[in-house]
From TrEMBL:
Residues 102-204 form the Serine aminopeptidase S33 domain. The lineage of its organism: Bacteria, Bacillati, Bacillota, Clostridia, Eubacteriales. The keyword Chloroplast does not apply. PANTHER family: ALPHA/BETA-HYDROLASE, ALPHA_BETA HYDROLASE FOLD-1 DOMAIN-CONTAINING PROTEIN. It comes from the Bacteria. The keyword Transmembrane applies. Keywords: Membrane, Transmembrane, Transmembrane helix. This is 2-succinyl-6-hydroxy-2,4-cyclohexadiene-1-carboxy late synthase. The chain crosses the membrane at residues 7-30.
Length: 324
């Protein structure tokens, strides 16, 4: 009997140690990946384990020209800052860029992970030059918006519905395009599976991922050479408790299957951060009117910079079919 009690005590002790260890791992991953990062994201404090790309000369030149064009544009364009309240009570911030003459053409542009509205201003300028009013929100837990936990597109899809309603409240005849890059791309794809107003005419996603689960699996392997089990399993439990969502339900792949909104899928052919193969599965899964563009030689988020002429020609020729 005494020996049996000792064995039971050892087993309980081992299980307790395992439980504590998994809880620590889950919280560590959650804090590392999903808790708001304070301060400005710069080259000096980017995660050294993140995949680094080598920019081509053309890409560098195009980026520098975009910065100059944006700087000049911001001196001239009429802008307005605004806020809305999220479903869970957060103040979400956005910036509006208005055309000089009235138009019903609108685009909402969603930025990427640990980014902000400023980083997608070159895209905003391209839409503005095509006659669109532009809204660039800071996603929850980013920039000027409130929030402690990053939504990875899943929580943000509900926020996007609020932003759409906001635009419709400004202009009941609005023709709204949703555009997103990286996590923003996942956001607009996840939004596509919701019940959208008829004002939403088309969606453009760039380098978005299939699901949060697969995104983190790829990250664990590419950055650290680690398998998903048990790290992601532990992290998902923590995320479910603290942020109120789980990785598997946060699926752009499942959402685009329900979409009825025309969608253009774009990606860089050399993307290893969000593997290029994901865009083909997303495209195949979508049941809406759709098209696809993969820019050869482009890394993550670089498609508009590597070949801007091809990229934007495709984007606006696609949109012209649905936006008057």
């Amino acid at each position: 009997m005494k020996k049996k009690n000792i064995i039971i005590s050892i087993i309980v002790g081992v299980l307790l140690v395992m439980f504590v260890g998994l809880a620590y791992i889950g919280n560590y991953f959650f804090n590392y990946a999903l808790v708001r990062q304070e301060g400005i994201i710069t080259e000096a404090n980017i995660d050294p384990n993140a995949p680094q790309s080598v920019e081509t000369y053309a890409e560098v030149v195009n980026k520098e020209k975009s910065k100059e064009d944006v700087s000049k544009w911001l001196e001239e364009v009429k802008t307005e800052e605004t806020t809305i309240l999220s479903e869970d009570g957060l103040n979400l911030w956005g910036k509006l860029y208005f055309q000089e003459e009235k138009t019903d053409k609108w685009v909402i542009i969603a930025h990427g992970y640990t980014s902000s509205h400023e980083d997608i201003q070159p895209i905003a300028l391209n839409f503005y030059n095509k006659g669109y009013n532009v809204l660039t929100p800071d996603m929850r837990a980013h920039g000027n918006s409130e929030g402690k936990y990053i939504g990875m597109g899943w929580l943000d899809r509900i926020d996007m519905l609020r932003w759409i309603d906001y635009i419709v409240s400004l202009d009941s005849n609005s023709q709204v395009v949703l555009y997103g890059e990286s996590m923003g791309g996942a956001t607009v794809m996840m939004t596509s599976g919701e019940d959208l107003p008829s004002n939403v005419k088309a969606i453009i996603e760039d380098c978005g991922y299939t699901s949060v689960q697969e995104m983190f699996e790829a990250e664990l392997y590419n950055r650290f050479g680690l398998p998903p089990f048990p790290i992601l399993n532990a992290a998902e439990i923590v995320t479910d408790i603290r942020a109120k969502y789980n990785f598997e339900e946060a699926s752009a792949l499942e959402q685009v299957k329900k979409s009825t909104t025309p969608m253009l899928f774009t990606h860089g052919g050399n993307d290893t951060y969000v593997p290029t193969e994901m865009v083909y599965r997303l495209y195949e899964a979508a049941n809406c009117e759709k098209d696809i563009l993969v820019i050869d030689g482009a890394d993550h988020g670089a498609a508009p910079d590597v070949d801007p002429e091809t990229y934007y020609e495709k984007v606006f020729s696609f949109l012209n079919k649905y936006v008057n």
